């Protein structure tokens, strides 16, 4: 039985959480309710308990509640945390990592996917503070449903209405069902730039932030895959449940990847430096009149080597960074590298370090243009496609 931890925030829309509970229960989902202090100003714990068939949890340190089920277990024993309605205050506390009541403590302690259904006055929703908090949460992979546009209890009209309980329930069910679509699969992901030393203080590298690769590792792991992330130097937090192997150079990345074989799939997002210094200087290269000439040697092509490896994964996905005639170059690159799918993006459009990405998926069947979306959304869509590949194969 799937489990949802439902956090009800304070707001006039709190009564709609009762409908959400009813709908989730009808889908056979068990619902464990948590209320903030403000939520109790709008609905009673008793109505929530009656519908959920379980007592409401509301205090952080209360001897009887803690001995029955501690807050860390509450946070862990669930497949999804649904915050409905998510008030501006709760969103702000969550974005800033506060843990000043049971609800925010659970949000901080959980490793389950989190889904927010915001509801508030239109001005509060549009306020830059709320928008900045939402951007922060989206970046961390929090799913957001709504809010919708319409007239509100306060008499104003605009964005801020809670999405309908039916839509919220459907989104929750979709997240719950993809939770284990990749269970039992081992997947390797490369990410970030590589660094090729010239001497003890200098190196050749590029602008890759690693964001897209890290988001993909996270999305695959969220679907139950065992994910190994072979990463160059980046400053990103390690997604929950993912194992990371840190490397610096292309050669180290290749060896780290080979050491992970066999895997079911490999997703190669790393921006591997194509060249390294032919001879590495053991000492810092000094200025002595003329600038030194740099002789380069070609690095191994990790994607191409894994694609042609005796232990080739069943699905190999490459990425292509192009600045011109994207489709043409990327289609040729897919064949040259021997990978099954190639995700092409136009890096002339400020992709490095950005949060959005517009990509084209190229497979043997043809090409598919995906609209401009957040890197997290690209990752989700790609992870769903990977899951589909294994279901169909
Ligand atoms: N790649 C790799 N090892 C390399 C170079 C690239 O594994 N030495 C992988 C990347 O991770 C990516 C794909 O190959 O999945 C394409 O990378 P890209 O930089 O677009 O291609 P290049 O091979 O460098 O081709 P070119 O520079 O000619 O566009």
TrEMBL record:
Pathway it works in: Cofactor biosynthesis; coenzyme A biosynthesis; CoA from (R)-pantothenate: step 2/5; Cofactor biosynthesis; coenzyme A biosynthesis; CoA from (R)-pantothenate: step 3/5
One GO CC term on file: phosphopantothenoylcysteine decarboxylase complex
Function recorded in the entry: Catalyzes two steps in the biosynthesis of coenzyme A. In the first step cysteine is conjugated to 4'-phosphopantothenate to form 4-phosphopantothenoylcysteine, in the latter compound is decarboxylated to form 4'-phosphopantotheine. Catalyzes two sequential steps in the biosynthesis of coenzyme A. In the first step cysteine is conjugated to 4'-phosphopantothenate to form 4-phosphopantothenoylcysteine. In the second step the latter compound is decarboxylated to form 4'-phosphopantotheine.
Region: Phosphopantothenoylcysteine decarboxylase, residue numbers: 1-186
Region Phosphopantothenate--cysteine ligase, annotated ranges: 187-393
EC number(s) reported in the record: 4.1.1.36, 6.3.2.5
Gene3D superfamilies per the UniProt record, alphabetical: CoaB-like, Flavin prenyltransferase-like
Identification of the protein by name: Coenzyme A biosynthesis bifunctional protein CoaBC
Gene, per the UniProt record: coaBC
Stored HAMAP family: CoaBC
Binding of CTP, residues: 274, 284, 300-303, 319, 333, 337
Family: In the N-terminal section; belongs to the HFCD (homo-oligomeric flavin containing Cys decarboxylase) superfamily.
Cofactor annotation remark: Binds 1 FMN per subunit.
Listed cofactors: FMN; Mg(2+)
InterPro entries xrefs: CoaB-like_sf, CoaBC, DNA/pantothenate-metab_flavo_C, Flavin_trans-like, Flavoprotein
Catalytic reaction(s) noted: (R)-4'-phosphopantothenate + L-cysteine + CTP = N-[(R)-4-phosphopantothenoyl]-L-cysteine + CMP + diphosphate + H(+); N-[(R)-4-phosphopantothenoyl]-L-cysteine + H(+) = (R)-4'-phosphopantetheine + CO2
UniProt keyword list: Decarboxylase, Flavoprotein, FMN, Ligase, Lyase, Magnesium, Metal-binding, Multifunctional enzyme
Single Gene Ontology BP annotation: coenzyme A biosynthetic process
